[in-house]
Amino acid sequence: MLGLAAAAALLGFVPGGTATASAASAPGPVGALYSSTVGVPGSVRAGTTVSLHTWYMERSRYSMAATDFLVSVWSGQTASEKGLSVSWLNPLTHRWQAVGRTGYSDFGLSLDSAPTHLTLAPGRWARIDFRITFGASTRPGTWHVEPNVPNGFVLLDAYGRPVLNPGYLSVAHKQDFTVTVHR
Length: 183
Fold this sequence. Notes:
6-stranded mixed β-sheet, 1 helix, Immunoglobulin-like, 5-stranded mixed β-sheet, mainly beta
């Protein structure tokens, strides 16, 4: 009889982590995910809102439906992370939606399911817009802005059905911008 730890290891669960697969059975990359964010200024005054745009696309044999978007904004000063707010232009409602932190420095927009009308064919670009407000109480100094767009997605076959465990899309380029906030 297997102990709990041995059974968990066989099933691919890691304590405090997520499900994994053994190296021999793990699917490899099936394509690449590309993104490019524009509009990030080098410096701003506290109290400023900046509008940003991220273009994204994937190259694989599958179509993709984005399910959530994320941007990380941090300064490295854990006690000084106040004064920030983020809103996304929701691609379903076409309205600005303010979001709270989903982690230490993460601000995410989650679409409850993979909307098929937002399906993106391979090699086609899509755009998501978001705003970051560096409020009047934002600590002056260097801030990092790291878009992770899309943060979640579903790969779809030629009939629009989700593909189960097809592999993953390798991230072709990760962006990390710095913004200096002044009083």
